[in-house]
Amino acid sequence: MLRMKHLRSEMTLSFIIVAIVIITSIEIISFMWIKDMIETKVSETTVETLKQIDKNMNTIYGNSSDISKYTIANNEVRKFLKLKVAESDQSTELLIRINEEYANLTNSKSFIAAINIYGNNNLKFESAGSSYIMNAAEAAEVEVPEDGTFLLTATYRRYYYTLGEQYIMSFYRQIKDINDFQNRLGTLRIDISENVVNSIYKDIVLGKTGYFFITDKKGLVISHSDKKQIGSNLDAMGYNRTIFDKKEGYYKERIDGRNVLITFYQSDQHNMIYLGQVPYKELMYKVDSARNLTVFLTLIAILISLLFFYIVSTRISNPLSTLTGFMKQVEKGDFNVIVDSEREDEIGQLSRSFNQMVNRLRELIEEVYLTKIKKKEAELEALQSQINPHFLYNTLDIAYWSSRMEDAPMTEEIILNLSNFFKLGLNKGREVTTVGKEIEHLKSYLYIQLLRYDEKPEILIQVEEGLYQYRLIKLLLQPLVENALLHGIAEMEAGGRIEISGREEGNDIIFDVKDNGKGIESSRLETLLDEDYRHDSYGVKNVQDRIKIYYGESYGLSIESEVNRGTCVTVRIPKLQKEGNKND
Fold it and tell me: What's 378-389 look like in SS3?
């Protein structure tokens, strides 16, 4: 008997040593592999994000290049640059026409701060008025290429008398006579807003405190969310030369006393390097937490293994086989198993522990699920709290009464409509409004929007007043009317027309937003409601998604269009309880 006890002790001690060595080895190897996998995965994903940023930047440069080509070919610009200084009357008339053309360009391209044309005849056109470089050290001499290609400067600060201080990158190109390329007429400078460039990537999440920024291929920072970093040099900041020697990749570096993961991508088409930087500690936070949990679970596993070993050593195999079968069910996700725990020996104790563990796992799964829901609700509440409607209303109210005191009826009307537009749009934070308020919100929007038009389009709103008290989610009609204005009739010089109608159809409400604009090509129309985010279809896609989420798949938008004949967007929603009823 003593010999058996001694043998059991030896076997138990040997089992403990082997188990600890194996489990520890597996844990170390697993975590090393997981760390490498996460680092690689995050870096590969970040590189793809950097490539997408590059595509967006290429769009900006492509548009700038198109504007420069348009300028070179523009007959009015050529006439202006060929005038003699003495021909002031003609230059004034030409400036007026040029200003009208380029005002549309600068309004439609948010990244353009200003378009400037400087003629060799000492005449000039500046869409944003006069400006100057704020820092003399940044006012380097610009040598515009003679071969007709463009030059893009580093980011610098320029002060405009109409826009104030701006961080910009300037796009330079020579303007040559298209009839005689040896004859240089002047220079074009397109000022690109760094704030718009920054908006391409500033909201992309990279860990908790990670961020993106852009440098040129000499390492000079040209775009950064922290404006103090613009103009800094990567060499001086301690970055590795790997960034300049390879097209793309990632590496670990110590910057400002922190270990960080640097991901980079060099643009093929432009003098740009895109970088993402995230603290390594943030990247591995979950891995470290999982490691601590695994160590704890490993200790529990070793104890349970010892208990199993003891039971096997006493040749009680059948109950263990039964328990093993239940464990397999739990492994498959069945947490409704219950082991008979009436026994008072070790098997019974193990069975009860197993039941408690399953119950605890079930509770933990529910807790984690509820925690995630609460976290999302808290995040949404935090975002909504950033909008202070009372401050907005009070400010607009002060401006409204100030305009009345200063006898500015036009300003008074604009502020009143703007205040009403925001008030109805915010809707006190509620998602649901009424048809009447939605129409009122639309009218406020149209009043403000139509002020921009010299030849105002005809707007007809024909919604049955009987529908005004029915409920619907807010911001359904305004995005569709905005699309009709911007993408339907924007290019029409006169004769634009938009009709907004509403009617009952059984248990549904139907709205039609119809314009007589340029229409949509059939190939584009087939995918318009199914494609991901695009600037030119965001309003339609957003409305479609919100209707589907709120009302179900039976409701949504349908679009009919014919090129050069117009477009009709139809909205179908259910006829909900009228406002004021007991179920409201």
Answer: HHHHHHHHCCCH
Inter-CA distances, 482 with 39, 217, 488, 540, Å: 44, 41, 9, 10
State in Å, rounded, how far the first CA of the chain is from the last one.
81
Residue 231 lies in a domain: no
Element at 574 (helix H, strand E): strand 566-574
Tokens at 548, concatenated: 């589907």
Positive or negative torsion for Cα 146, 147, 149, 153: negative
Amino acid occupying residue 40: T
271 vs 124: CA distance, rounded Å:
29
Per-residue pLDDT reduced to its tens digit, 309-352: 666 555 555 566 666 776 777 777 676 777 766 666 666 677 77
| Residues of the domain holding 464 | 430-574
* Interior angle at CA 540, CA 537 and CA 544, nearest 5: 135
Q: Does 267 map to a domain? A: no
Residue at which a domain ends, from 158, 173, 197 = 197
Is the pLDDT reported for residue 64 higher than 60?
yes
Going by C-alpha positions, the residue among 173, 169, 178, 180 that lies closest to residue 75 is 178
Alpha-carbon gap, residue 372 to 365, rounded angstroms: 11
The beta strand positions in 43-163, using DSSP E, are 112-119, 124-126, 131-133, 151-152, 156-160
Q: Does some domain include residue 325?
A: no
Identify each DSSP E strand in 25-104 by its residue range.
Answer: none
User: Could you identify the residue written with the tokens 């390097």?
Assistant: 273
**Number of neighbouring beta carbons within 10 Å of residue 77:** 24
Beta-bridged to residue 566, according to DSSP, are 562
Token digits for 300?
């529990």
Other C-beta atoms within 10 Å of 410: how many?
Answer: 9
Which structure tokens are listed for 114? 């200003």
**Which domain-ending residue is among 146, 172, 197?**
197
CATH number, domain with residue 188: 3.30.450
Q: Is residue 45 in some structural domain?
A: no
Q: How far apart are CA 521 and CA 206, in angstroms?
A: 38
CATH code: domain of residue 557: 3.30.565.10
Among residues 106, 105, 111, the alpha carbon closest in space to that of 223 is found at 111
pLDDT tier for residue 538 given thresholds of 50, 70 and 90:
very low
Q: How many CB atoms lie within 10 A of CB 381?
A: 10
Number of domains in the chain: 2
Q: What is the pTM of this model?
A: 0.46
Handedness of CA 242, 243, 249, 254 (dihedral sign): positive
- The answer to which of 141-150, 477-486, 533-542, 545-554 has the lowest mean pLDDT is 533-542
Q: Where are the alpha helices (DSSP H) in 386-507?
A: 389-405, 409-426, 435-450, 477-483
Give the span between the Cα atoms of 200 and 57, in whole angstroms: 8
Q: Are 182 and 242 in contact (CB under 8 A)?
A: no
